[in-house]
Amino acid sequence: MSAINISAIEAGQLWSFHGGIHPPERKQLSNQTPIQTLPLSKTFVVPVKQHSGNSGEILVAVGDDVRAGQPLTQPGLQRGLPVHAPTSGTVLAIDEQPIAHPSGLTDLTITLAADGQDAWYPTTPCPDYQQLSRAELLERIQAAGIAGLGGAGFPSAQKLALQRPLEYLIINGVECEPYITADDRLMREHAAEIISGTEILMQVSGCNKALIAIEENKPEAIAIFTQLLSERAATASRIALRQVPVKYPSGGEKQLIEILTGRQVPSRGLPIDVGLLMHNVGTAFAIHQAIVLGIPLIQRVVTVTGEQVDKPGNYWVRLGTPVADLLAYAGFHETTGKAAQRVIMGGPMMGFALANLQVPVVKITNCLLLPSTTELAPAQQEMNCIRCGACADVCPAQLLPQQLQWLAKAKDYDGLEQQNLFDCIECGACAYVCPSEIPLVHYYRKAKAEIRNIAREKAKAEIARERFEARQERLEREKQERLERHRQAAEARKAAQAEAVAAGADNPQDAVQAAIARAKARKAAQAAAAAKANDSAEGESS
């Protein structure tokens, strides 16, 4: 990053990104009241994988008693992350259960029956974390099960473990999607803890400068952070606050980086490639909890909003809580049949409708939206693309959405990758402006899943091929080793016979006579033994 660019960043200059839209914000429905704490459910369903990566190895068995914060799994394969008991109770089952997924998939879960005591597993707080080494801090963050709480849930410790020079740490408090206010309320009520978590992230990453970005439509949060930073001169010299103009999706990782630094992360690249690292404000708060207080990630703030709920607001929810329990507490009354309301996990732009309300809240659950049909119209019938180009105009990744759609329908996976499908952040801006009501993001998600599945199958086939070849190689090696042993044994027998022949070569007749004598001696010994046996038998009978 050039000195001129850094100077502009330090001066507070902001840039812009291509495209974007301005949908109705509708945030006041849920951000007017403090965060409430949801009462404990009777049963919790804890998916063993709640992040982007591999599931851990299960540490408990059916019938085990556990306590709140106790590890239920331990990291296993690459990008593994543990999950913890959300409360104290007994393990009822370890099996496949429905999870929150657009396709209604099932996954391995651990079901707990809460005992109502909420007894805690021993914690290891460390208020003097400055004395800990980088490795120790990373180990604690990993053990706490912390994943990114504002996006795909990438394991935070592994993100921090990448060792490259960094210019800035960015703390993302933009929360640009309509309706969602979980980060807004968290920033208003826990700004000091978020700043503490930011300082821990700076120590771990080795980054000396941080930018906390908040969208301009959150004046209360901005005022609180401004005051706290002004009261801490040492902190304010290292951490700066930036107010981001309202535009969707300004909270996207690459989009926010461009706004704050003017830099563009390359296609398929990472922020660290341009000297930057980004974490969500919720992640910073969770890291403060894990390091300073020793509390693992077992709860998060979830927005419950929409005109179909009586008590919209934000709630502290233990992970594994059935969605139905949260909605019932917030005053949602489920109906069925034609009158059934949609329940969307996430916001109106990037969320998806739930097919089953018994699915659990997980680490990346930030919102449950329950809109009326007048508030958020149901999806309309898809029509043909008219090539208006509106989707390309608003795409923040500067892709060609209509081209991607055609390629996705044709299952031209090579073409999709050439057109940088995986740069799509699935923000939904293209579908929002499409006059033909084409669910563009649906096609992109499906194509991405198919490409990933093909890649997995290829990897499995390659592993199977390598194992087969290794087995064939081993069998051939063992065969050759057996043949070699047989050959050596045959040669040894031949050598022994040759030596015997050589030993009797001076007088062959003597060797023959000696063999005859040995045979006669054996026969005589056998006859004597038989006679002796007969004599003994006669003596006993008399």
Give the structure's gist in a few sentences:
The protein is of the alpha/beta class and 542 residues long. It contains 16 helices and 16 strands. The strands form 4 sheets. It has a 6-stranded mixed sheet, covered by helices on one side. A 4-stranded antiparallel sheet has the order 2-7-6-4, with no helix packed on it. Strands 10-9-8-11 form a 4-stranded parallel sheet, sandwiched between helices.
Descriptive report:
β6 (89-98) and β7 (106-114) form a beta hairpin. By secondary structure, this protein is of the alpha/beta class. The chain has helices at residues 3-10, 134-143, 156-161, 182-189, 191-205, 219-231, 233-236, 253-261, 281-293, 323-329, 390-394, 401-409, 413-418, 429-433, 440-503, 508-541, and strands at residues 36-37, 43-47, 57-58, 65-66, 73-74, 89-98, 106-114, 168-173, 210-215, 239-244, 276-280, 299-305, 313-318, 344-345, 352-353, 367-369. The protein contains 16 helices and 16 strands.
For the sheet with most strands, the description reads:
6 strands, mixed
Global shape: elongated
Number of strands: 16
Average pLDDT works out at: 91
- Look at the helices and sheets and give the structural class: alpha/beta
Task: Specify the helix fraction band.
Answer: 25-40%
Record the SSE blueprint.
Elements (H helix, E strand, L loop, with lengths): L2 H8 L25 E2 L5 E5 L9 E2 L6 E2 L6 E2 L14 E10 L7 E9 L19 H10 L12 H6 L6 E6 L8 H8 L1 H15 L4 E6 L3 H13 L1 H4 L2 E6 L8 H9 L14 E5 H13 L5 E7 L7 E6 L4 H7 L14 E2 L6 E2 L13 E3 L20 H5 L6 H9 L3 H6 L10 H5 L6 H64 L4 H34 L1
Parallel strand pairs: 1-13, 8-9, 8-11, 9-10, 12-16
Antiparallel strand pairs: 2-7, 3-5, 4-6, 6-7, 12-13, 14-15, 14-16
Helix pairs in contact: 2-5, 4-6, 5-9, 12-15
